[in-house]
Amino acid sequence: MSMEEVLPVLVVLAKCVFAVAFVMQIVPLLIWAERKGSAYIQDRPGPNRAHILGIRAGGHVHSLTDVVKLIMKEDIVPGHVNWFYWFIAPVVAMTIALSTFVVVPFGDYLTIMGHKIDLRVSEIDGGLLYVLAMTSLGVYGIMLAGWASNNKFSLLGGLRSSAQMVSYELAMGLSAAVIFLMAGSVSLRDIVDAQIVGWAPNGTFLNWNVFSVPGAIAFVLFWTAAFAETNRTPFDLPEGEAELVAGYHTEYSSLRFALFFMAEYANMIVAAAVTTTLFFGGFSTGLPFVDGAFLREHADLVLAVIGLGAVPPLLAFSAIAWKRRNRDFYKALSADDIRHREPRFFAALWGGLAVVHLGLGVAGLAGIPTSVLGVELGGDLVALAVHMTAFSLKVLFGCWFFIWVRWTIVRFRYDQLMNLGWKRMLPLALANLFLAALWIIVKETMLA
Amino acid sequence: MALPVPSRKMTTIESAYLLEVVKGLVLTISHVIKNIFDPDHFRTIEYPDMKKPMAVRYRGAHRLLTRPDGKVKCVACMCCPTVCPAKCITIIAGEDPDDPAEKFPVEFDIDMLRCIYCGFCVEACPKDAIRMDTRIYEINAYTRQDMVHNKSYMVNLMEGKKPEAEDVYRANPSTAPAGYTFDEKPIP
Amino acid sequence: MPKVKINDTEIEVPNGTNMIEAARLAGIEIPHYCYHPHLSVAGNCRMCLVDIVGGRGPDIACNMQARDGLAIRTDTPAVKKMRASVQEFLLVNHPLDCPICDQSGECRLQDYYMEHGQYESRLNDAKVSKEKRQDIGELIVLDAERCVQCSRCVRFSDEVTGTGELRLMNRGNHTEIGLFPGERLGHHYQGNLADICPVGALTNKEFRFRRRVWYLRETASVCDGCATGCNIDVCHQEGEVFRYNPRRNDAVNKSWMCDPGRLSYQSVMSLKRLLRAHVDKKEVGVDAAVAEVVRRIRNASSVGVVLGTRATNEANWALLTLVRANLPGARIFWVEGNDSTGLPADKILIDGDKNPNSAGVRLLAAHDGKVGDKTALKDAIPELKLLLVLQDDVVHRLGGMSLPPVIYFGTYLNDTSERAAVTLPVAHTVEQDGSYTNRQGRVQRIRRAVNPAGDALPAYQVLEKVGAALGRAPGTAMPAAAFNTMARAVARLKGMDFKSLGEGGLPLAALPPESSNVQAAV
Fold it and tell me: pTM here?
């Protein structure tokens, strides 16, 4: 087989690995953010005790110990479960959560050896339909778990989840319909491209869907429905611990529970990624004139700006904040405590990062990347990095928003949930669809 | 019985909920921002490493005092088990034929799981035989049985050291509890 | 019947009553140390000083006979000051070793200090110290320091036991209680010395340091040590009996009781208690044993029944009615004698008959008219195929005769329980309600102080089960019902009911003139 035949396969494999890795990397980060965020909202320091060789890493070690704990725990299989469905339920939940991500574009394209590679895992054109289909499949994991657990609390959790899904699916779909009316396509790539151009200069955030009247309404509805679909507070009735013990995952322990746990966060990430793609311009930078072409053209300059202007101040700020936070802590430790290593470790790490970025910046200034890698590849890589960063930041902010809302709002009552879904959001979404149609007609007649 | 809770009728904007959600979000994020920029905003004491300064008369684990001849001061008068509101003190009295004090506790157990640290036993003691000035509050064990402090444990609790509280009282006698004696005199 | 006035209360009292008693009748307490209702008046503590209205000055109430028109006041400032002063005086040389003193909690010095003292100490000199912890008798420890020289113990040994071992010795500050050198208390009423001592000078060696008195609950009952039936308070805590204290009953034991009776509380927790039902030495449940009893009774061609002199009236009544209702052919006996040797009878309290209820059994035997005695039982033994025994150690009393199979309802392990084919555990005196009839023919209540040990039940309840299984229950599940039924049936119990027995008991009615000779024997 020649390189020509192998390369597409390799590329698809690489993209698959990337998609899974992207989601799975963010999960522990989110667990950390959930803990640290809730702590800061509640005026406490949050996790900061566990350490490896004295390195506490701001509480990240706790996520690691959690993984170890969940792996080491006894895997209990209750005697009364319907074992086949019980076994596959967490797998279904996790698989579907991960596979939704395949249609989300995280960059425009990359040219390797003359092949232009589209930066999304699957290049299907019905991307948005696929997303809607997959998210509604997501409820199967929960429903199967609830039903197969053969336990009334779990069953109630599963039933609530499916009822909730049915109720909010409609509003979600109708809101998404607004977007593909406006973009004229259901391909997510096309939707993103449509948000880069517009009445403002290319790449400006004002071109994003969320900054149009029907788009804004659709965003609020879609985002609310996303909360319901991911079973996050205030819509986490399927696992309402006050009523249902732990809801659908009551009977699960060890890694099976971990799968549900991760699936919830993966769902959050996917929901944030889809919302970003539909309403916030996907990987678009949001800066005027900074689109893919611009990035490729001025690759060295962009690199210099990032390396010298953006990253070092951030590093400096976080170092100062860390130092102030731990001022009293190190004084209280005994002299031979192993945790005295940590400041030195962080100094080295932060210093190293700063040096690397400064080096990149200087290299960019000197025009080295394009001269070494070639104009085409160098430009592509810089564009990829910038797009990915923009995309990741938007997704992370979306995820943070999930966490933020969770620690702000209390859980709805079940009747409130149903009223909101059927009596408020569905009519609003329908009206908004008409509004969007009107909007497009008016816009086109005016442009014509 | 259901109690009627007086409630205010919500305005339209409030019942639309969206603005209220935003208000809530602003409140919570303001806490996050304060906590990032101002390390003094929360004053959590990182317990095993940092410890809270103790009140002068903090009541910690009980210790039993001894006379110069090494015997416990306690004469098993049963005042402390009588006054104890948690009924956590068990004393079995015995007669010591060689001792002028006649009576002594054969067993003196305090169930620390039951104890509520009220200090009544110290107040009630006519012989100043029991004190809670050790400032030991990390009282723990692997079994319930080990949570019962017995006579020898309570006698040797300070391992011959003077409790920290005694220095505080000596330096500032007005802080000492009434009847606190520094010299451990023998029973006349 | 002189009429006296105490404070603002006018009251008529019997002739010869002193003013402490008169005040008590009027509901006013006059504090006192040396006065005791059953001892002569000494008048040396001065605590009972009262003002005589219109009199020259204060006088002691204990030595003041009630006479018509006498008016005293116990609440004037002068009286209060006198009490405080006397209290202070008595405490001058008192060691204040309450933490180690067994009297704490029932000490007059403590009580009266809180009620009438409450002064600041003015003592500068060293206290006079005397010998502590003197072993003066089998049951008594003397602490001379704590003594307030009230001389109650001296008068007790002079007047009640007549042994006169104790004396007040030395003078002034150095006065102390003591015995002649080398002597020890020699009588069997030593425990009373600790009781009458108002302070901690004389304490009970046996009870010493075992439990603080304020933990103890008291239940009014009757001692089951002999036929005298001394009234007692059972002092117990959380199901454990710690001591018996004599309870005042002027008709029976005044305020006294003997040492063996006092120590008989040990039998409650004794290792010789019968705790489980046995069939042929194998432990079974009570119901199984009852079924076995019924089976054996049905299979036996002739049954003999022995009433229990150690059992309550109610239990004997239950057995009697049970037999008469269900077993027409059965013969009933009662056996005199003691289960174990005890002290011989004396003129004070101790009786030679060591059973608490011999008189009650005699009464029921007379009522039934067909109850045989010991000789009759001895004669009948060869014909009997089964013998039911209630509590008494009949085997011991008959001197080890060979008996038919025995069904024993008993409290203790003894010769009879050893021989018995079926044993059923019966509650101890302090574990049940009921009544005993003492040697004077006085019916007195016993009351449940603690729960029965093991599987034991009051005998009348066990017999109720047996009766129910045989067909006709005697109706004695509740002691009050049993007693009231019995009182209606038995002539000499006429007019009594369980409630009216009260704390002090009631004497049997006098013999009706047409009564038979058998009843005259009671």
Answer: 0.73
